[in-house]
Design brief:
By secondary structure, the chain is mostly helical. It is about 70% helix and about 10% strand. A three-stranded antiparallel beta sheet has the order 1-3-2. Helix 3 crosses helix 4. The chain is globular and about 60 Å long.
Length: about 160
């Protein structure tokens, strides 16, 4: 704890419980959105998340995908197989190291990524439109601060 809080403060304890409840509700909302996206785009969640990683990188390896997704390489191999079967990604040999296979989006995969990103963007716009401009600014500021606090605690607790 830091000096900003007093753990024996009853009000602080109520805030902790409310924060936990709200975080669980936000997580459930995110899980509901993920399930909807999977159904809407006909992709299992893992394949959808993998596919969207190619918005940041043109080429990825199984090892790189495993690191970004925080899963075992064997799991990524299965996910990539599903995407290959759907013609959303393709593999090529790395021109600098023939032992490495690079994975990249096909034209169909790129179009699917763009469609998913546009849908997600629309949902986020709809959420923000529920708020006044002042509320939007306050929410964004609070979320940025929350993210920083979470990163700080992760470094302290999970490192």
């Amino acid at each position: 704890m830091n000096e900003k809080t007093n753990s024996s403060d009853g009000y602080f304890a109520l805030q902790v419980r409310r924060f936990q409840q709200l975080m669980e509700e936000v997580l459930l909302s995110c899980e509901t959105r993920a399930a909807h996206l999977s159904k809407k785009f006909g992709l299992p969640d893992a394949e959808l998340r993998c596919l969207m990683l190619f918005r940041e990188d043109k080429y990825l390896t199984v090892k790189g995908l495993a690191q970004k997704m925080d899963v075992a390489k064997s799991r990524v191999t299965k996910i990539v197989s599903g995407l290959l079967a759907k013609d959303l990604v393709a593999r090529i040999d790395d021109p600098t190291d023939g032992r490495i296979r690079l994975i990249h989006l096909t034209a169909k995969g790129r179009a699917t990524c763009e469609e998913i990103a546009a849908f997600i963007g629309t949902v986020h716009e709809m959420i923000l439109q529920e708020l006044s401009p002042e509320e939007r600014a306050a929410v964004l500021t609070a979320l940025e601060r929350l993210r920083t606090s979470m990163e700080t605690v992760q470094e302290k607790v999970f490192s």
